[in-house]
Design brief:
Blueprint lengths: L1 E9 L2 E10 L5 E5 L6 H9 L5 E9 L2 E2 L5 H7 L1 E4 L6 E5 H13 L7 H14 L10 E2 L5 H15 L3 E5 L7 H12 L7 E5 L4 H5 L4 E6 L2 E6 L1 H10 L2 H7 L11
Helix pairs in contact: 5-6
Length: about 260
């Protein structure tokens, strides 16, 4: 996936301001930054949420124009978003939800047989050490924060996307739940799948080691590096970047 000079507005206010990034298969990119810098806006815009208006730039996946696709077309093309706050859907079981999503990707006439689907689902749940009772529970209803996030990883495992966007998947998790969710995500790393991980904190990246770390402020990337950059942010916070970049007012970062 190649993102070039992407600009996104919400209710007329520009939030993402000239964002550039390339994510290849097998790579794990982490986007870090303080609140209000446009990280979640970026994720939602890439998935095609109608609230977020793309006003400029280009996004391609395997040479295809992602921005010209509807949400379902983006999903079929291989984009997956694990949301920060997964919605509860009473009356719809996990199994039915995942099978519907999988069949939507496969297309009419190529639906996965019920028995084959359940065998695959059970195998993935065993691989991810997920309670078999998840199959019949209503989607996210009554789930703990950790269960919701593990369920997102299960969906990702079944759908096998090309690009997985994890939007603050560590949000609201205690240490044990964070470790389990991260281990599940790590088990799905492959040379065919690129990851874009959005987080505030270095602690998630202790478990899912990224190949690249990018700092996003005022709607764009202002600094990139390896895992050592995440460690520096954990130790010093984000303010040290202002001094390094010679900026007194953070609002000027978008012009650096």
């Amino acid at each position: 996936m190649v993102i070039s000079d992407l600009r996104v507005s919400v209710e007329g206010k520009e939030i993402v301001r000239g964002f550039n990034l390339e994510v290849k298969g097998g790579e794990v990119h982490a986007i870090m930054g303080p609140n209000g810098t446009g990280k979640s806006t970026l994720a939602s815009a890439l998935m095609g949420h109608p609230k977020y208006e793309v006003t400029g730039g280009k996004v391609t996946l395997d040479g295809q124009d992602l921005l010209e696709m509807s949400v379902d077309e983006r999903a079929r093309a291989g984009i997956f978003l694990a949301m920060q706050y997964p919605a509860e859907v009473p009356g719809v079981s996990n199994a039915n939800f995942i099978r519907t999503a999988l069949n939507s990707r496969r297309g009419e006439g190529d639906e996965v047989p019920v028995l084959k689907f359940h065998r695959s689902l059970q195998a993935k749940m065993k691989q991810l050490n997920i309670d078999p009772q998840f199959i019949d529970r209503y989607l996210n209803e009554g789930f703990s924060g950790g269960e919701k996030k593990r369920n997102e990883i299960l969906q990702m495992a079944m759908l096998e996307p090309r690009i997985s966007i994890l939007d603050e998947i560590d949000s609201g998790l205690d240490i044990d739940a964070l470790r389990i969710v991260a281990e599940n995500a790590n088990s799905l790393r492959s040379s065919e799948r690129g990851f874009l991980i959005i987080t505030h904190y270095q602690r998630l990246l202790q478990y899912i080691k990224p190949d690249f770390v990018h700092v996003m402020m005022q709607g764009r990337i202002v600094k990139s590096g390896g895992y050592e950059l995440a460690e520096a942010l954990e130790a010093q916070g984000y303010d040290w970047l202002k001094d390094e970049l010679g900026i007194e007012d953070e609002s000027a970062l978008a012009e650096v």
